[in-house]
Amino acid sequence: MPSYAARVETEAFLAFVDQAHALLAKPDTDSPAFDAFVGDARRLLLREIEHELDQLRRAGALIRRWTGEHDLIDIAGMCGWEDPITELLRWALSPGTHADSALDRQHAVLSLCGWEVELPREPVEPVTQRMTRAGAFIDLDLDFPERAVVVEAKWFSEEHNAAQTGQLQTIHYAEAAQAELRGAGEPLVVYLTPNGRPPAGIGRAVMHAQVAFALARALDAHAEQLPHATRETFRIVFGHLFRWGTETNLLELEAAASRASDRAAVWSSHDIENLLGALRVLRPFIAWSGTS
């Protein structure tokens, strides 16, 4: 037989359910008390992001502009293929893809990844699968004279020890870059994943969607000068990165932020989840005034 405390808790819960059924059957939605309740609930749910809603709405509009209608990479069955997606990122960063925007694109990604000193004056050609002297391969690097940037890119897999050295990949690649590349000073190590999980070794955790957003924002100023075919190819690449691995549907962000900003609009808990998830992805780009 349940204990007395358990019976009391059960009775209280059943009473709550009965009251909820009565409210759903005939909600008193015209009363001032109900209006106050709805207002309080809205403020509680939005209090972390109410000052960022306009920024999130604009970010959502940019994401929509730079997302292709169809995710051809997923359609081709290549979602999660680390090397091909890294090659697409090399293309998206390459000066040869569009010379006039090259420095802006690389500066945008360097700033996202934590480049703290004066940004480089000239773009460099990204290199993929550069073999270290030990025989391991750096997924992507940008060897600036001022400093080398090395990227360990993952999709579903986790960081592991490089078979050739027994060291964690990020640690070995940082040491190899310092010894073997021209970049002066300590290399900037980036651990790139869809969800921003931290490396087992060293480096700044960055999301694929964040890289796509940084590049899209840089390209927005060049949109009218971009050849149509180049612009559409960027949209295909970015669209895949925006769609996969994050905690939110970034393609719904603009609409969710617009509804949450409009006191007369119908909004849902799904909107709030999307907004909070988008803020986690886009916080490097948004002036945040939240309290937690």
Key features of this structure:
globular; 48% helix; single chain; alpha/beta; five-stranded mixed β-sheet; 292 residues
Briefly note the structural class of the backbone.
alpha/beta
Largest sheet: number of strands, sense, barrel closure: 5 strands, mixed
* First-last Cα distance: 44 Å
As a percent range, the share of helical residues equals 40-55%
Beta-strand percentage range: 5-15%
Order of helices and strands: HHHHHHEEEHEEHHHH
Rg, Å, rounded:
24 Å
Q: Note poorly predicted spans.
A: none
> Total number of helical segments?
11
In the sheet with the most strands, the strands line up as 1-2-3-4-5
Oligomer: single chain
Q: Estimate the global geometry from the Cα principal axes.
A: globular
Number of strands: 5
**Mean pLDDT score:** 87
What does this structure look like?
- The protein has a five-stranded mixed beta sheet with strand order 1-2-3-4-5, sandwiched between helices.
- The relative contact order is 0.15.
- Helix 10 packs across helix 11 (269-282).
- A hairpin with a 5-residue loop joins strand 1 (127-131) and strand 2 (137-143).
- With 292 residues, the protein is of the alpha/beta class.
- The mean pLDDT is 87.
- It has helices spanning 4-25, 32-46, 53-65, 72-75, 82-93, 102-112, 169-180, 208-220, 228-243, 253-261, 269-282; strands spanning 127-131, 137-143, 148-153, 188-193, 204-207.
- 48% of the residues lie in helices and 10% in strands.
Question: Could you write a compact summary of the structure shown?
Answer:
With 292 residues, the chain is α/β, with parallel strands linked by helices.
